[in-house]
Amino acid sequence: MTSSEVRPDGQKSTLATWRTRIIGALAVVAVLVIAYFILAAFIPRWWAQRLAELVSGSFSKGIGWGLVYGVLGTALPLFLLLSATLVWKRRAGKFIAGAAALLAVITAIPNLMTLSIVLGGNSAAHAGQRILDVDAPAFRGASLVGAIVAVVVFLAAVFLIVARRRRRKHPGESAAPKPPPAVAPQTPTVTPDTSATRQQTL
Questions:
Q1: Second label for 147, Cα 20 to 30 Å away, from 27, 38, 191, 200?
Q2: Whole-angstrom Cα distance, residue 93 to residue 86?
Q3: Distance between CA atoms of residues 177 and 173, nearest Å
Q4: Phi and psi of 12, rounded to 5°?
Q5: Does 10 score more than 60 pLDDT?
Q6: Residues 134, 57: contact at Cβ < 8 Å?
Q7: The pLDDT of residue 33 is above 50
Q8: How far apart are CA 44 and CA 32, in angstroms?
Q9: Per-residue confidence band for 3, with pLDDT thresholds at 50, 70 and 90
Q10: How many other β-carbons are positioned within 10 Å of the β-carbon of residue 63?
Q11: pLDDT, position 183
Q12: Taking all residues of the chain, what is their mean pLDDT, rounded to a whole number?
């Protein structure tokens, strides 16, 4: 580090700080890319074999386990992320939100591994697809149906939460408007004609 990158007070300059951050970010990206290629060559085939052992070629088991993984593997991450957003501004909310987000990622791993088989285009993904076709029939379709059901339930829960909060913030909007009070019709007052009476008296 040259002397121009050091301030008189001994602190690093902004240029040196950003250079360190960029190098660190590039190193992290490189590690993630390497890990992705390693896992992409291993995970699809390995996960397909685990599902094949679980289903054992049974069509009914494929539907049952597919629904279980689809519903739980989608609903749990979504509701954990929702709870993280709800407790973020509370006391110790950031810690709880971070833990909930970490659990959301962990519970989403099974569905992510299934997606690596379905959407993958490498040889490991194709091998996993063949394994599921033979030893885990109907698992992928049932998993998709379960995921859709979980998303619908999640959206309904979000709608209810938002509507409840809106009613709390604006209680007057939810109440039905009261009809205006009925006004009794006014009867016209008839004033007696006193001119004829005055003429008669005169």
A1: 38
A2: 9
A3: 9
A4: -70, 150
A5: no
A6: yes
A7: yes
A8: 18
A9: very low
A10: 19
A11: 61
A12: 82
Amino acid at 175: A
The residue count for the chain? 202
Are the CB atoms for 77 and 100 separated by under 8 Å?
no
CB contact at 8 A, 150 and 78: yes
What is the distance between the alpha carbons of residues 11 and 13, in angstroms, rounded to a whole number?
Answer: 6
pTM of the entire structure?
0.67
Residues with Cβ < 8 Å from 75, sequence gap 6 or more? 150, 153, 154
Report the pLDDT averaged over residues 63-76.
95
Contact between 12 and 4 (Cβ < 8 Å) = no
List phi, psi (to 5°) of 193: -85, 105
The pLDDT assigned to 79 comes to: 94
Cβ pair 124, 44 in contact under 8 A: yes
Q: What pLDDT is stored for residue 173 in this prediction?
A: 58
In one letter, which amino acid is 22? I
d(C-alpha 170, C-alpha 16), whole Å: 51
